[in-house]
């Protein structure tokens, strides 16, 4: 059932509200169950993520949840999505384990991230290790959207590369940005090609975009943002960083966006504090590169200039390798022709 069918979507929203849940806007489809015309269960599908899952109280503890999740997985498979993720409350983890989902990260009393395979994250990390592990005393990392890749991004990469024996740069994979993932990955690769000790990675499904993080089971937006940061950073610390011996993470200071500034602060908590689970990762906040007026270079400013069709001003804030996207909109053939690995 397509979520765009207004009356049914309103019915689902009311059902979710009755169960203490909200509804996320990015859901493309719902799988629903009825008994004597009454809606008794629903599961939303948004790309590779199942969300907005609810079972009527009278039907909990039955096989309905297993049937519902199975039907949702079949529908997702028809959409071409076989590797699925699920965000839920920690109290529901046991139930979803019985439906074939396995926990990746649990933030106590807040949220849990699960996937529908017991080996997904381990297979991904094994591939990272076998293809991209580089020995060195100081292995660093950066995670970026690069929407688009600016002189500020290039400055951060160059600064981190000078400080590290090897630097791993991960480009967030979801296509929820102004520039497509392929374009952004190409920009970063072209803009850092002159550096001999840098590997640019497709971010993979295990580096989560804030734009696709669900908040249907969390009422407070500030709590949603904090939980998103906690899950994303814990995934990185517990799985990705150990696979590549990463012990340092670099990020630019954030003078404008409160959401990004909060995420930077969360890095210090979730990466640097001793937990006994995985090695600590030192966070390096690097002062942002500024323009001639001492204003920090930002991708949002470049996007604003592009929307105003002021390509000349925008071009002064990006490296030459990015300008082709601003001036012509034609994909950069040297990188966009490359076949992107599925996971690495």
Note down, in words, how this protein is organized.
It holds the Pfam family Citrate_ly_lig. Residues 1-119 form the N-acetyltransferase domain. This is [Citrate [pro-3S]-lyase] ligase. It catalyses: holo-[citrate lyase ACP] + acetate + ATP = acetyl-[citrate lyase ACP] + AMP + diphosphate. The chain is an alpha/beta fold. The chain folds into 2 domains: 6-118, Aminopeptidase (3-Layer(aba) Sandwich), CATH 3.40.630; 121-336, HUPs (Rossmann fold), CATH 3.40.50. It contains 12 helices and 11 strands. The chain has helices spanning 6-18, 64-78, 93-97, 120-132, 151-163, 181-191, 221-244, 258-272, 299-307, 311-315, 320-327, 333-336, and strands spanning 29-35, 38-46, 49-55, 85-88, 102-107, 111-115, 139-144, 166-171, 198-202, 248-252, 282-286. It has a 6-stranded mixed beta sheet with strand order 1-2-3-4-6-5, sandwiched between helices. Helix 7 (221-244) packs across helix 8 (258-272). The radius of gyration is 21 Å and the shape is globular. The model is unreliable at 329-344 (pLDDT under 50).
Distance between the termini: 34 Å
Count of the domains: 2
The main β sheet shows up as: 6 strands, mixed
Can you list the strand order of the major beta sheet?
1-2-3-4-6-5
Query: What is the name of the CATH class of the largest domain?
Result: Alpha Beta
Given the C-alpha coordinates, what overall shape results? globular
Number of helices: 12
What is the alpha-carbon Rg in Å?
21 Å
Report the count of strand segments: 11
Q: Tell me what portion of residues adopts beta-strand conformation.
A: 15-25%
- What is the overall pLDDT average? 89
Helix content: 25-40%
Low-confidence stretches: 329-344
Which CATH-level-2 architecture of the largest domain? 3-Layer(aba) Sandwich
Structural class by helix and strand composition: alpha/beta
In N-to-C order, the SSE pattern is HEEEHEHEEHEHEHEHEHEHHHH
CATH superfamily of the largest domain: HUPs
Determine the CATH topology of the largest domain. Rossmann fold
């Amino acid at each position: 059932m397509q979520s765009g069918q207004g009356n049914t979507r309103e019915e689902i929203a009311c059902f979710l509200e009755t169960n203490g849940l909200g509804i996320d806007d990015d859901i493309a489809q719902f799988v629903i169950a009825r008994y004597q015309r009454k809606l008794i269960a629903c599961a939303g599908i948004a790309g590779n993520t199942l969300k907005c899952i609810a079972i009527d109280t009278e039907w909990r503890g039955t096989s309905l949840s297993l049937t519902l999740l199975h039907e949702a997985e079949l529908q997702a498979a028809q959409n071409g999505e076989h590797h699925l993720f699920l965000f839920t409350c920690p109290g529901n983890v046991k139930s979803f384990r019985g439906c074939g989902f396995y926990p990746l990260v649990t933030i106590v009393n807040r949220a849990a991230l699960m996937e529908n395979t017991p080996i997904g994250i381990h297979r991904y990390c094994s591939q990272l290790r076998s293809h991209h592990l580089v020995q060195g005393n100081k292995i660093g990392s950066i995670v970026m959207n690069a929407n688009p890749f600016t002189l500020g991004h290039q400055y951060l990469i160059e600064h981190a590369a000078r400080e590290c024996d090897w630097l791993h740069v991960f480009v967030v994979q979801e296509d929820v940005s102004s520039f497509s993932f392929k374009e952004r990955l190409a920009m970063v690769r072209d803009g850092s090609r002159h550096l001999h000790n840098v590997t640019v990675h497709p971010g993979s499904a295990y580096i989560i975009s804030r734009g696709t993080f669900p908040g249907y089971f969390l009422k407070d937006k500030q709590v949603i943002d904090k939980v998103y940061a906690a899950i994303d950073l814990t995934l990185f610390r517990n799985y990705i960083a150990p696979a590549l011996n990463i012990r340092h993470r670099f990020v630019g200071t954030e003078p404008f966006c409160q959401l990004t500034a909060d995420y930077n602060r969360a890095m210090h908590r979730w990466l640097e504090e001793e937990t006994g689970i995985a090695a600590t990762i030192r966070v390096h906040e690097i002062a942002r590169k500024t323009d001639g007026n001492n204003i920090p270079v930002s991708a949002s400013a470049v996007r604003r200039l592009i929307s105003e069709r002021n390509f000349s001003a925008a071009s002064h804030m990006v490296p030459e390798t990015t300008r082709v996207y601003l001036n012509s909109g034609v994909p950069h053939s040297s990188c966009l022709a490359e076949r992107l690995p599925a996971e690495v």
